[in-house]
Amino acid sequence: MSKRSRVLGLLTALIAVAAGLVLPTTTAAALPAWPNLVKGQYSPIVTTAQYLLRHHGHDISADADFGGGTESAAKAFQSANGLGSDGQIGPNTWSKLIVTVQRGSNSEAVKALQVELNRYGHGLTVDGDFGGNTDAAVRSFQSSHSLDANGQVGPLTWQTLIGDFPGYPAGYSLPLPRGALARTEYDDVDHTYPAIDLPVNQVAAYAIVSGTASRISESKCGLGVNIDVGNVRYTYCHFESIAISNGPVSAGQRIGTTGASGNAQGPHLHFHIKVNGGYRCPQKYLISLYDGGVPPAPANLPTTGCFN
Ligand SMILES: [Zn+2]
């Protein structure tokens, strides 16, 4: 072998090594499942779907509340796209609703994107304008979720954003309509043990997570609901009426109407979280939901510092 061909061979080997470094070597992470949204749910993910429906020309309000108007719009969108028009927003409907957006885009779809990014703790203004802050939030989300951090929001990024959170198989929801209470109410200290009393009367109560519901009817709690997810129990008390049977519930599903049943001094929703039977402070969990972020795992919630 001549010196020249040895050098060429070495160069070729170096190029091959370099090429190996830049070839795609990432293994695609499994995408989370699309959530299935149905009439009656109340969740930030409903707001996302509403903005996407608006993007496709359906004049509905984006208020997180999956009511009759949203269902009609979903049915119309489904018929127009060759889908079975059941009015539920599941995998096939999501796939048609999403549109690729990137820096410079300005649309209702960008508002949907901003709502989603805010669920992950990015405090973006929901204005539909895909500028520098939204671009930075997208790239940060992409790089922390093993996605190509190119700032372009296509099908993989959308599904990763909207898909189920680990540990929350169908997302989560505030326990009350967002407009029912100010943020500060979710931070209140008003018990002698870890729990919270939310001052509302005769408003809808929603399942905070998906799990197994059981109805409560006894003298202290009054009418209420337990939702069990593994060793975690979420408890609601003092309902005026219960809207579910025992069994599976989905996050955002209406489970009752608040009131003053049981041992309640005036109407309010009593709410607490227990892990393995021990009370945890629910405030950080609720504030996080109010802010559209990912709530802490209940096992990581404090057991002190949230009561008198
Ligand atoms: Zn209470």
TrEMBL record:
Domain Peptidoglycan binding-like: 44-97, 107-161
Signal peptide coordinates: 1-18
InterPro entries: Cell_wall_metabolism_enzyme, Dup_hybrid_motif, M23ase_b-sheet_dom, Peptidoglycan-bd-like, PGBD-like_sf, PGBDSf
SUPFAM superfamilies: Duplicated hybrid motif, PGBD-like
Coiled-coil boundaries: none
Chain ranges of the M23ase beta-sheet core domain: 197-278
Key words of the record: Signal
Stated name of the protein: Peptidoglycan-binding protein
Origin species: Kribbella yunnanensis
